[in-house]
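Record type: monomer structure entry
Structure origin: computed from sequence
Chain ID: A
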Amino acid sequence: MPEKSTFKLQVKQAWHTLKNSYISWIVFLEGLRSGKNAPGSRFLFYYASWSTMFLYVLFHLLANFNPLQIMIPFSLYDYQENDLRSRVVVFVSDGNRNVYPVNRAVMIGENPVDKIKTLVREVGQLAGQNNFTTENENEFHASIVKLPDLHQAIRAVWIRDSYIVIDLHESVLKSIFEQIKIRKSIAKWNSVSGETESESRKNTKEEEIRIKNAIMESAYLAIEQTLFANFSKIQEIHYKTEGQKAQTLSYTHGDVAKR
């Protein structure tokens, strides 16, 4: 019971305080209206200052902006940061041995070997562009596909006076080749009358391999044209697998590519 009476007393005191404050504010406003309590310069100064501060904070909060940012030196305006990326030419492909140049901003170091690896990796990224322009400034559209990322298969890179040697992991190349995904609707062999089910499956498998070979070949062509475009002194690109001369297999390209 004592706790209940104490709570009632606290509520009654709070109510009286709020009531007296309200009455005092009404009396003050009535005095301002009648002219009995003429506002002094100090009151006007505080009233204008607090009103300005309230509106300033309110507008910044409504705009989802920190109102205190203006108090931090040199933070009112955003300064443009220097873009450390370099503009390079990267070739993309439609997966049918046709390659097209695009301009990209890429973070490239000064080491030529690292630059080659970065460019090879960029070839395996999404193109993000389907409209191109010929030398005669005629625009055309090409269905660009994502090429295999042969950067994963790079074992070592050497640079000589006029050619580049790229050594590749043969096992990684096989894995990349097998992981190329082909839509069934594209690779499905058009059945003809009299064709058995086994023959249809065989022909479909051969069609899938043909499409994969074209995509893999397109990746090599895109890499070669990209390196030739960014290294003006390079005339040839030599391929090796496991340190040996590359064999002409279904998942590899020719041994030497010339400009």
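Annotation 1: The mean pLDDT is 77.
Annotation 2: The first helix runs from residue 2 to 34.
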